[in-house]
Every structure is written in C-alpha cells, then in structure tokens.
Design a protein that fits this description.
The chain is mainly alpha-helical and about 190 residues long. The protein is about 80% helix and about 0% strand. The protein contains six helices and no strands.
Amino acid sequence: MSRRPLGGDLAWWVFVASEFGTINLFLLVYAFNLRSEPELFAATSSFLHPTLAYVNTLLLLTSGFLLAHAIAAARGPGGPRVTRLRLLGAAALGVAFLGIKGYEFHSLADLGMVLGTSAFSSHYWIVGGFHWLHVVLGVGLLLALAKRASSLESPDDEWSTQAESYGAFWHMLDLVWVLIFALFYLAP
C-alpha cells in the first residue's frame, strides 16, 4: 500500500502547528490554574452560555464537514459550482459562529466579566479572543478559496495545495474549539 504524502503546503503546516502549539500553551496554563482554584473557576464559569457553546460546536464541526466535502467535490463529479457552494456554506457557518461568540463576549462584558476581572475571565478572553480572531482569518480564507474555485473548470495542483492548506487550518480551529468547549464549558 502506498502512503499519500501530507496534503497542502509545508509552510502552512508549520504555521498551523505553531498556532496549535500556542493555543495549547494557553490551554495548559488555564488547566493548571483551573486545578489550583476549582471553586473560583466554577463560580466564574457559571456566567458562560453553554447552550450557545453547544450550538457553536455544531456550527464549526458542520462547517469542517462541508469544507472536506467541498474539496472532494472539486476532485469529483461535483465540479466548481458544488465546490463553491459548499465552501460558501462552510464560511457562512463560520460567520454564524463568530456572531454567536460575539454575542457571548458582549453579554459577558455587560456583566462586568472582562479581561482582568478574575483569573478565569482573563483566560477566557485571551483564549476565546485568540480563537475568534483565527476564525475570522479562516472565514476569509474560505471565501478566497470559494472565489477561486468558481473560476476553475477542474482543480489544478496550486488550487488543491491551497485548499488542503486552508483546510488543515480550518480543521485545527475545529479541534481547538472542541478543547476550549471541554475546558471552559464542561470542566469547571
């Protein structure tokens, strides 16, 4: 059996790995502090919106599913139109995630839970804000990929490499969100 080489551009993989490592360092510090002060973190985390977090989890995972199927459609019978629609759908779900997360940020700020209010709120804003900004970047990448896909009759090597690279980034955001969801919304 032959092994398929890692898809995408090596520089993108280095970028994705470095961003994943950075957010995991933030999460490790958070987990350490959570273990050190469980009562404080449990009390402060009660201000979060777990229902919105569940919805956001479904949005990001569904968007990752659409992205994977968009790339498959580009290589198969779906063609550029189906590829573009799936990419736009993935981006739209990313925008919905951003809107819900923005609402949660706003409502927490209205309650006075801002950066520096407590150890929990500082972790929440740093990790959540870092992820949110990366989702903004990811949505932009998906839109750029959709625009480019609409002009292709069939995917060339450059488009495929770009799609796999952007896909790796987007799936990293999915994974990071699942970790954030588990540590911030379920663990305390």
